[in-house]
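Table S5 (text form). Sequence records supplied for joint modeling of the two-component complex.
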Amino acid sequence: MKCREMVELMTNYLEGALSTRDRTRFDEHIAGCDGCRAYLEQMRATRDAVGKIAEEQIPEHIQEQLLEAFRSWKASGL
Amino acid sequence: MAYVRDRDAAEDVVQEAWLTAIRQLERFEGRSSLRTWISGIVINLARARRRKESRVLTFTSLFGDLADRRKPTVDPSRFGPDGAWRELPRSWDNLPEEKMIGQETLGRIKAAIEELPPKHREVIVLRDVAQLDASEVGTLLGISAENQRVRLHRARAAVRKALEEYLA
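The corresponding structure-token record, covering 246 residues in total, follows.
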């Protein structure tokens, strides 16, 4: 398998969606290829970093509105 | 809310979703998790809004997944005639954690996600931002597992590229 093909399989690899045969060829290639190993690590790091943007602040006035909506919802006793 | 372009529209959709969710709470039957159910409401509202905003169907929106499967996600010039890396990608392992998840980096990530075609954007938002699992997302979007992986791959590859340029 070539590096050019490897990069297109990275998400299927991370999702556990490669066939047994492709998975073996993938593992064999990556064991001997620093470039593809670095690329795979970058894809993992990208996925993890994307997960961090959800932890960011919700704008304050929206937070207020949501809290307000919750308060009145709770107060209405539904 | 990476579904609709501007912030006001996103705020409207979120607010509408809360109201819809609250009104329909009694219809929630516990067949999916509450999180999935609410995500579904948000998606439907955001999609309806997007349809209202642009009625033009692009080539990508109709045939995207088929065409996408063939397009390389990495610039072909990075590989030699033998298909091997000309210059190896740099390892990010030695970057300080603060750099990877610093405000500026997160800003770049968000900008990259906003530029994605909507079909790729919604998959990465649900999978990697909201962290729903693959089967939940498949049900919500009504797409096959394979198409989901194609879209997720293209979305992550585009964000990776933006990060590579930023971190270089």
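Note: Residues 34-50 of chain A form the longest helix (17 residues).
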